[in-house]
Design a protein that fits this description.
The chain is an alpha/beta fold. It has one domain. It contains six helices and eight strands, in the order βαβαβαβαβββαβα. The strands form three sheets. Strands 2-1-5-8 form a four-stranded parallel β-sheet, with helices on both faces. A two-stranded antiparallel ribbon has the order 3-4. A hairpin with a 7-residue loop joins β6 and β7. α4 crosses α5. It is globular, with a radius of gyration of 15 Å. The termini are close together. Iron/sulfur cluster binds next to α2.
């Protein structure tokens, strides 16, 4: 089983109430090979919601209390992001996911890049909060940009739910 960012599956759960659908992910869900998950929704945040970025570090730093997730209104939403990450971890562990496909650049889901915390559109290397927690627990995480190649390399068929 794959777990995937819900916004990549077409669910309108992004901060702006939109999605960013990837057709392969929709197809995998329809085949019962993937399940959608939104860490920020699981953390109790509404949709739509203010944009948020990590200030002072990366997702690992937020988990360690060295950095914060701040929204565009200046509110500290770190607790919701951390709660969503741990809820996601429970679900990933329940399904024993073989990999988790996460939306790049998100302060929760980014697996290689996140925004730099200045709300200026610039990115930095680093993981989002959920991506960092899943990686700390040994799960394979990849972005939507890596999925097609990863899937093509799989020789085993994915189990259905
Ligand atoms: S938290 Fe992840 S799944 Fe939810 S909207 Fe943001 S990028 Fe998509």
């Amino acid at each position: 089983m794959l777990l995937v960012s819900a916004c990549l599956a077409g669910e309108p759960v992004r901060y702006d109430g939109k999605s960013c659908t990837v057709s392969l992910i929709k197809s995998l869900i329809a085949q019962g090979k993937a399940k959608p998950i939104c860490p920020e929704c699981l953390g109790g945040l509404p949709t739509p919601r203010p944009a948020a970025e990590i200030q002072g570090g990366t997702g690992d730093d937020v988990l360690a209390g060295r950095a914060k997730v701040i929204d565009s209104n200046g509110q500290d939403v770190s607790a919701a992001f951390i709660a969503g990450a741990y809820q996601t971890l429970k679900i990933v562990q329940f399904y024993q996911a073989i990999a988790i496909v996460l939306k790049e650049n998100s302060p929760s889901c980014g697996s290689q890049f996140i925004y730099n915390g200045q709300f200026n559109g610039q990115k930095r290397t680093g993981l989002g909060v959920t991506a960092a927690l899943l990686k700390q627990h040994g799960f394979e995480i990849l972005s939507e940009h890596e999925l097609e190649q990863w899937y093509a390399n799989q020789k085993l068929s994915l189990g259905s739910c």
